[in-house]
Amino acid sequence: MKEFILGLPKVELHLHIEGSLEPELLFKIAERNQIDIPYDSPEALRQAYQFEDLQSFLDIYYQGAHALHTEQDFYDLTWAYLERCKLDNVIHTEIFFDPQTHTDRGIAFDTVINGIYNALLDGEKSFGISSNIIACFLRHLSQESAIETLESILKHQDKITGVGLDSSEAGNPPEKFKYAFQLAKQAGLKTVAHAGEEGPAQNIIDAIDMLKVSRVDHGVRCVEDEDLVKQLINNKMALTVCPLSNIKLRVFNDMSQHNIVDLLRRGVTVTINSDDPAYFGGYMTDNFMAVNQSHKMTKSELTQLTINAIEASFISEELKDKYR
Ligand code: ES4
Ligand code: ZN
Q1: How far apart are CA 65 and CA 255, in angstroms?
Q2: Which of 61, 217, 244 to mutate to test the pocket of ligand 1 (most atoms within 8 A of CB)?
Q3: What would be the CATH architecture of the domain defined by 2-323?
Q4: Which residues are listed for substrate binding in this entry (predicted)?
Q5: How does pLDDT run across 221-265, given as a tens digit for each residue?
Q6: Over the stretch 113-131, which tens digit does the pLDDT of each residue have?
Q7: CA 317 vs CA 134, 259, 312, 321: distances in Å
Q8: Distance between the two ends of the chain, CA-based, in angstroms?
Q9: pLDDT tens profile 139-182
Q10: Which of 26, 8, 98, 118 is nearest to 64 (CA)?
């Protein structure tokens, strides 16, 4: 099955590019930017990646992202991720970035988007990997700040497909960003949001109703509301599930407790994604392998995960036809 999974074409819909920063690259970038890292080696840093919950992860993740300064840094980060995509047979990826993590410390929006975008263009040329960019608002910050960020996003709308919502879910419900998302939609951007990761099923309902999302990031707590699960099935609303992330952040105790295969068998449009692979211990193939190991899936079920991701992606209909 390892060979089948490795060879299976994959589509990634939930990947924070800052979360793909491996300790080795972090050390290299920090050195050239003359930033001090309070660890002796990349191995020592990796050892420190033990999390109790979402917030304990986010604290370390934002620290790591602060090493990124120049356009070259963002290019190198994105390029390293694309090289991993190639190894994992990822044919299309839709990547998140967090503009405010960088603009709030004086890095220009242009620096960030140009570095990421140029690497993606080269990834398409060299590896044939197609891609889209989604800019996420940090939900622990204000809606005002999100709207200010939206203005920058709109200046680069030729490179950005949609907006998302990430960071601390507890205490920052979808409702807080209703107006910012309305403005984004009016401008022609797609919308997605993290919901039902650590927050309740109600956040999934609100992301769909108030933020008009095209898909839900995580969404695994939908099972707490039977009517919602039925609605997700009927409306073919996709969930971008991140199995290894959910174990690392203790959303589930272990992989055998994870509900993704149950949801798949019930007809929910679930997909497998890597979230923050440098922090959670695995890229796309690793996530597929981990789920298959504890749930024993058929080839047809594994293939369905890719079909679901193609359908839920923001690729043009022509390109979808090519991938189908
Ligand atoms: C994230 Cl796993 C997760 N959840 C919410 N926000 C995030 N940002 C980066 N990874
Ligand atoms: Zn995420």
Answers
A1: 28
A2: 61
A3: Alpha-Beta Barrel (3.20)
A4: 276
A5: 999 999 999 999 999 999 999 999 999 999 999 999 999 999 999
A6: 999 999 999 999 999 999 9
A7: 19, 30, 11, 6
A8: 22
A9: 999 999 999 999 999 999 999 999 999 999 999 999 999 999 99
A10: 26
Residue 246 in contact with ligand 1 by CB distance below 6 A: no
What one-letter code names the amino acid at 294? S
Write down the catalytic residue from 197, 224, 317, 318. Answer: 197
Question: Domain ranges in the chain?
Answer: 2-323
User: Which ligand 1 atom sits closest to the C-alpha of 242?
Assistant: 2
Q: Which among 277, 224, 212, 256 has a CA at the least distance from the CA of 57?
A: 277
* Distant-in-sequence, close-in-space partners of 264: CB < 8 Å, separation ≥ 6: 270, 301, 304, 305
Per this entry, what is the length of the chain?
324
Does residue 194 have its Cβ closer than 6 Å to ligand 1? yes
In the numeric block, which tokens belong to residue 195?
Answer: 């919901």
Find the angle CA(34)-CA(37)-CA(38) to the nearest 5 degrees: 145
Which residues are CB-neighbours of 236 under 8 A, at least 6 positions away? 269, 311
Report which ligand 1 atom has the smallest distance to the Cα of 280.
2
Interval between CA 275 and ligand 2 midpoint (Å):
5
> For this structure, is 197 an active site residue?
yes
The reported pLDDT for the residue numbered 185 is: 98
Between CA 308 and CA 215 the distance in angstroms is 11
Supply the pTM of this predicted model: 0.98
Residue whose Cα lies nearest atom 3 of ligand 1: it is 167
Quick: pLDDT tens for 24-60.
Answer: 999 999 999 999 999 999 999 999 999 999 999 999 9
> Could you tell me which residues come within 8 angstroms of residue 57 by beta carbon, excluding any fewer than 6 positions away?
51, 248, 249, 276, 279
Cα of 318 from ligand 1 centre, angstroms: 31
Ligand 1 contacts CB of residue 65 (under 6 A) = no
